[in-house]
C-alpha cells in the first residue's frame, strides 16, 4: 500500500496530476479539483494517497492534507460509494461543509453533489450520522444537537419555516450561530434575524 508520494509535478490534467519521484518513476494521482488548483508544473508536492485495486486497473487517489484524506476514507465505507464518487464529492464540497450537511440531515445539499441521488444521500445520512459527530468540530456537533431534537420549540418552528421558504439546513444553521441566545427567542424573532443575515450577504 502506497501511503504517500513526494515528487515533482510533471503534468497537470483536469482530474489528475503526474508526480515524478527522484527515482524517475511517475505516478498518476487523481485529486480533488481544489487540490489540483494548488499545484504547478515543476514544483514539488507531497500527497497522502489511497490505492484502489480493481480487476482492470490500479488507481491512486491523492490529497494535500489529512482532512480530505480522512473524509475520503469515511466515504468509502458507505454502501454504493466508490473512489470516483468519493473524489467527486470532495471536488464539490469542503469537509467541514459536508460534515455540517450530514449533521443537519440536509438532503438538499447532499443530492446536489456529483453522483449522489436521493437514495445514496439517504444512505450517507444513515451510515455516517454516528461517525461525524465530533469530526467537523465540537461546536458544530453540539449546535446540531441543539437545533435538532434538543433545542426549543421556537427554534424548531423557525427552522421549519425557513426551510419552507427554500433555505437549506446547512444555510440556516451557521446563521443561527450568529444570533446571540437564539434558543431564548421566539420563532418570529429568530426568522426575522436569520432573514436579515441572509439579506446582508447579498
Strand content: 15-25%
- Order of strands across the biggest sheet? 1-2-3-5-4
Predict the CATH topology of the largest domain.
Answer: DNA polymerase, domain 1
Low-pLDDT segments, ≥5 res: 137-150
Biggest sheet overview: 5 strands, mixed, barrel
- Helix/strand order: EEEHEEHHHHHHHHH
Proportion of helical residues: 40-55%
The CATH C-level class name of the largest domain: Mainly Alpha
Number of domains: 3
**How many helical elements?**
10
Look at the structure and name the CATH superfamily of the largest domain. Answer: 5' to 3' exonuclease, C-terminal subdomain
Provide the gyration radius in Å.
20 Å
DSSP, total strands: 5
Architecture of the largest domain, CATH level 2? Orthogonal Bundle
GO biological process, one term: DNA recombination
GO molecular function: ATP binding; four-way junction DNA binding; four-way junction helicase activity; hydrolase activity
Domain Helix-hairpin-helix DNA-binding motif class: 73-92, 108-127
InterPro entries: DNA_helicase_Holl-junc_RuvA_I, Hlx-hairpin-Hlx_DNA-bd_motif, NA-bd_OB-fold, RuvA, RuvA_2-like, RuvA_C, RuvA_C_sf
